[in-house]
Amino acid sequence: MDVEIINIGDELLIGQVINTNASWMAEQLNLSGFRVSQVTVISDQKEHILNSLIMAEQRAGIVLISGGIGPTRDDITKHTLCEFFGTRLVFNEEAYHDVETIFARRGYKVTELNRQQAELPENCIGLPNKVGTARGMWFEKERKGGGKTIFVSMPGVPFEMKAMMTEHVIPRIKETFHTPAIYHKTILTTGIGESFLAARIEEWENGLPEHIKLAYLPQPGIVRLRLTGTGKMEQLIHQQVDAEVARLESLIPDYIYGYDDDTLENIIGRLLKQKQATLATAESCTAGYIAHLITSIPGSSGYYKGSMVAYANDIKQRILGINSSSLEQYGAVSKEVVTEMAIAAQTMFDADYVIATSGVAGPDGGTADKPVGTTWIAIASPNEVYAKKFSFGDSRDRNIRRTALQALSMLRKTLII
Amino acid sequence: MDVEIINIGDELLIGQVINTNASWMAEQLNLSGFRVSQVTVISDQKEHILNSLIMAEQRAGIVLISGGIGPTRDDITKHTLCEFFGTRLVFNEEAYHDVETIFARRGYKVTELNRQQAELPENCIGLPNKVGTARGMWFEKERKGGGKTIFVSMPGVPFEMKAMMTEHVIPRIKETFHTPAIYHKTILTTGIGESFLAARIEEWENGLPEHIKLAYLPQPGIVRLRLTGTGKMEQLIHQQVDAEVARLESLIPDYIYGYDDDTLENIIGRLLKQKQATLATAESCTAGYIAHLITSIPGSSGYYKGSMVAYANDIKQRILGINSSSLEQYGAVSKEVVTEMAIAAQTMFDADYVIATSGVAGPDGGTADKPVGTTWIAIASPNEVYAKKFSFGDSRDRNIRRTALQALSMLRKTLII
């Protein structure tokens, strides 16, 4: 079943706002077994909206529209939909009640502009909006050759649209089109590039049954593998996909660090809690970025002690107590210094585990010996301390991110030994 | 002059990739005086591409296409363009030379697949690609009613597309359509919400001449004001816009922190360099995020010493030397503790200036007295130390970001006194 998305809003056409609505909607639809064949972005202009609706109707079975249903004068989607369907706006008691509730919660009285938000086209089914004042609108239109086309109009505000998609639109289109059972499992890998990974699992991939598809979803430093099974028997598909995941795990056990929406920061947090262990960091090139990732997890204060961001060399010496002879002999970006940093932070923070980083982030500071991108990472545990060298690229921003990812990945491996 | 953008690529329709190309292209076109009236995203399917080209031609004077011109089999844009223009591919010596150069630089020999990238439609002008192997293609097609429509096909890889747009496409369409002179100046403000700002500058805004437009570009914690002047006399417009900026400055001097593409991290870096002064941070709730922002600037190692991320209370006591009685009496999120943190870090890092933060980031840890979002920020300078309290919202992520922004803004004000 083909879906078209129409995003309405001037802010999308002047480049002020990146169209994350379209990609989020497309991903959700894809996960539910629907194919998005076109995304059209247009401004709040009646003729252009009408024209886009007419064109989309000729091509797709489902047309999802976001934007242009706010209370201000330039939001004309609702009136345009009335014209498209040859209908009129009628006052909807239930919708008005919702608007009142939202306003009462914020301590405001309903204005005339917002009262108009309770007027909906006569031929639509209103979709509740728990987090905003504009209802969604579900329309069904008979097709000439038989069957029907579904049109849904939603708010453009991302969190309102997302709530409405999840709670109403996706369940309703699944029900309307009797989609087959679909089951996804995403395997998260790090430490191996996409093409090497593909070569390693080629035989397994070629042996996948017709109804189980594999997608490679690469990100900097990470490759996600998504398995999607489709069929009539829900339980059977779950079993079959899980069996394929088990086979995959046995092929690349060293590179898998998690599943589905998991992140390294989350996984590390869980492992530290299980062990009732604490963590600290001593950061030079990452300069607080690893601390920021770790503390992005709610509850991280339960296991994370802090970070010594020793950006200047005199700080490494004076506060962390790194040997001046190590700094002179090997330089700040060295196995010796990063190892000393890890051990020093372990004592300083009284922490069980420590991540330490030191690297040439760039664009300046590179030498023939240690070009930009050269990075040392050390992990200290209660039993040992070890360090590894990496050569990342020449982008400062990416060097910081890749160092953080590698460091978290190394810590995870240490925690599960 | 209306422009339509067509982005080709399956990855955009399954939600794997967010369409940042469209927003970037739209912003650049807008800044050059062109209006984007539609963005269409479609997959690598011949009929769908052909159909989109036909539709766009009916509506727009310029059609910019990105994606689908790589070396692999599923990239069919070039063949489809030949069909659309009724022409054929011919081997282009110059384009082949470019491909060879790129391959030689990477140490590879040109493959047959990449040799085909030197074949271009006979009726196009090739646009050089310094950073990739696919040339851009510039087409002009006579319109029935007179005049011509411009079609440009570009790579989908963002940095290749951006280089080509900046170096070739934008200058060429400006030349072709003799656009008027256009001049932008963006004023960056913080510490005042959009509606309060609008009320404050209403009279000035209403008095702007017809050919100078104002746009509000809000971001979390920041409102950017963009003035755009258009006309025939380039120098005169510059003068007129600059005069309006001067008037605006006199109305809201306390809220303006910079201009155009500047960032607080950058401005602070420049001010510290001018003063030959150093900076350190002592972070609790921001936990390294401020250090990360400051060190995102190349060369920050010249003035930034480091950060003490004191996440756990025992670290605040033991390493920063915060009084246990202050922690007990006032709590970690208090004027007393954040002030002590700033002074302690000044000594510890031997730094001229210090930012210290302590707050309840959430979602847990809030009390009736100090709900989630309560944040104290202190700034220490060689002359004084002062602290301010803020009440942000209940989103952990946004609390961390807004605290960082406010802290940098406070430091900037201290540096310019």
Can you describe what's shown?
The structure is a homodimer of 417-residue chains. Chain A has 417 residues and is of the alpha/beta class. The first copy, chain A, has 3 domains: 2-176, MoaB/Mog-like domain (Molybdenum Cofactor Biosythetic Enzyme, Chain A); 181-259, 2-Layer Sandwich (Alpha-Beta Plaits), CATH 3.30.70.2860; 264-416, Alpha-Beta Complex (Maf protein), CATH 3.90.950. Chain A contains 16 helices and 17 strands. Chain A has helices at 10-13, 20-31, 46-59, 77-85, 93-106, 112-115, 158-176, 194-200, 202-206, 234-251, 264-275, 289-294, 313-318, 324-330, 335-349, 396-416; strands at 2-8, 35-42, 62-66, 89-91, 119-121, 125-127, 136-142, 148-154, 181-190, 212-219, 222-231, 256-259, 279-283, 304-310, 353-359, 374-380, 385-391. In chain A, strands 2-1-3-8-7-6 form a 6-stranded mixed sheet, sandwiched between helices. Chain A has a 5-stranded mixed sheet with strand order 14-13-15-16-17, sandwiched between helices. A 4-stranded antiparallel sheet of chain A has the order 10-11-9-12. In chain A, helix 3 crosses helix 4 and helix 11 (264-275) runs parallel beside helix 16 (396-416). The relative contact order of chain A is 0.08. Strand 14 of chain A pairs antiparallel with strand 14 of chain B.
